[in-house]
């Protein structure tokens, strides 16, 4: 384990700046999610189900916009992509807190379609500014910053909602998010290296990250290995969202609903520590091995007999959350040409959003028919199936690559997709 690797990553100015900026960009985003629900329930007097519809409309819009906004980043660059987004965000959220339920849905969906692609931008800068051997460490730091933002954002949102009216709280939060987007526009960090242009005509259509022709590529870079990593990303969030639902159901069954907050915090702490440990590790692991480990470690939570054992098991299963998500980005960065990374990250975000949308109903259906234990077992089974299928597919792809295509010793640092999938 190389803790010094974090010092090396933070010594890179672009990486250090974008990690700090990323924390402050994401806090108002996470706070806004909570505030939107609280605004619908308290100020508009609607049910939680109706609040969920507003959140769902925004989430679906964000998922649809991901590949489109990412493709714009590749083609026209950061400022020409982010500038119009900021204007739309300001316009929508200047009006949304003061309108009724139906207009709020429309405005939230419109804002979602034109959301600033911050996750894509921040991770592209990290991938561009760090050498391949440091990417896992840098992405793990980004994952840790995301976990901290997720912990701080909702707490800030609740505090704002209790200090002011939810309308003003929502307005201030969304304006802060727009201001963070404007900061990105001002800083305008390069998204690709000088040798690679973001224009569509400059990228190698149908090539992998090492320039070799890719087979059966869709949109120039989505090959079978890439599609399987996207499926793994979706399965990861199915497991995570299902676990979230399972925690609530289990603690209600234990008659300890007041423990939900600190138990979820333990789960997040496990993810944070696991992500930092993975970033300091001396090698990468296949995303399918990590997904399988995440799924397998989630199943034993169903054996908990009370809150103490449940808390221990949920912390353990959190350890592989952040490493699995980090691995999906790391593997994609080596499978996809640099000129397509914006769209790559857009599809990655859409895959994870789709998984989040599926995880809750999968776990909920299982819980309704078999108790809270079945929720954990159901999402664990989904993760294991995808991990096994992905592992078998990657093994087949590795065997089908001619030895001459694998390169010599100079390719040993992750230049080949086959080498990545063989970890």
UniProtKB/TrEMBL annotation:
It is found in: Cell membrane. Its main location: membrane. It is a multi-pass membrane protein. One of its GO terms (molecular function) is transmembrane transporter activity. Residues 169-423 form the Major facilitator superfamily (MFS) profile domain. One of its GO terms (cellular component) is plasma membrane. PANTHER family: MAJOR FACILITATOR SUPERFAMILY (MFS) PROFILE DOMAIN-CONTAINING PROTEIN (PTHR23542:SF1), PTHR23542. This is Major facilitator superfamily MFS_1. It comes from Intrasporangium calvum (strain ATCC 23552 / DSM 43043 / JCM 3097 / NBRC 12989 / NCIMB 10167 / NRRL B-3866 / 7 KIP). The lineage of its organism: Bacteria, Bacillati, Actinomycetota, Actinomycetes, Micrococcales.
């Amino acid at each position: 384990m190389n803790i010094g690797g974090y010092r090396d990553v933070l010594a890179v100015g672009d990486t250090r700046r974008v990690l700090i900026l990323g924390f402050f960009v994401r806090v108002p985003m996470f706070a806004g999610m909570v505030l939107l629900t609280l605004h619908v329930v308290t100020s508009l007097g609607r049910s939680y189900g109706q609040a969920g519809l507003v959140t769902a409309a925004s989430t679906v819009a964000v998922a649809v916009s991901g590949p489109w906004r990412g493709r714009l980043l590749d083609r026209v660059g950061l400022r020409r992509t982010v500038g119009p987004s900021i204007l739309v965000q300001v316009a929508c959220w200047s009006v949304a807190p003061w309108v009724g339920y139906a207009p709020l849905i429309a405005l939230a969906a419109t804002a979602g379609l034109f959301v600033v692609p911050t996750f894509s931008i921040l991770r592209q800068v990290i991938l561009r500014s760090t050498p391949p051997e440091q990417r896992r460490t840098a992405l793990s730091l980004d994952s840790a910053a995301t976990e901290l933002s997720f912990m701080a954002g909702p707490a800030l949102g609740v505090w704002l909602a209790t200090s002011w009216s939810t309308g003003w709280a929502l307005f201030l939060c969304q304006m802060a998010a727009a201001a963070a987007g404007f900061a990105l526009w001002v800083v305008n960090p390069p998204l690709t290296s000088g040798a690679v242009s973001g224009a569509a005509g400059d990228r190698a259509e149908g090539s992998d990250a090492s320039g070799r022709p890719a087979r059966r590529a869709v949109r120039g870079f989505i090959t079978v290995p890439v599609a399987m990593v996207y499926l793994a990303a979706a399965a990861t969030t199915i497991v995570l969202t299902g676990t979230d639902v399972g925690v609530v159901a289990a603690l209600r069954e234990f008659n300890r609903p007041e423990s939900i907050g600190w138990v979820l915090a333990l789960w997040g702490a496990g993810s944070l520590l696991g992500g930092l440990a993975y970033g300091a590790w001396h090698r990468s692991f296949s995303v399918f091995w990590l997904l399988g480990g995440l799924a397998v470690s989630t199943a034993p939570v169903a054996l908990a007999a009370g809150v103490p054992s449940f808390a221990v098991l949920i912390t353990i299963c959190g350890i592989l959350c952040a490493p699995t998500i980090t691995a999906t980005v790391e593997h994609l960065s080596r499978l996809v040409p640099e000129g397509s990374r914006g769209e790559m990250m857009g599809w990655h975000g859409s895959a994870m959003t789709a998984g989040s949308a599926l995880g809750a109903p999968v776990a909920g259906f299982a819980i309704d028919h078999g108790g809270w234990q079945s929720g954990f077992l159901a999402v664990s089974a989904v993760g294991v199936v995808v991990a096994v299928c992905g592992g078998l597919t990657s093994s087949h792809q590795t065997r089908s690559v001619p030895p001459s295509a694998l390169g010599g010793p100079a390719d040993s640092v992750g230049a080949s997709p086959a080498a990545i999938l063989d970890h």
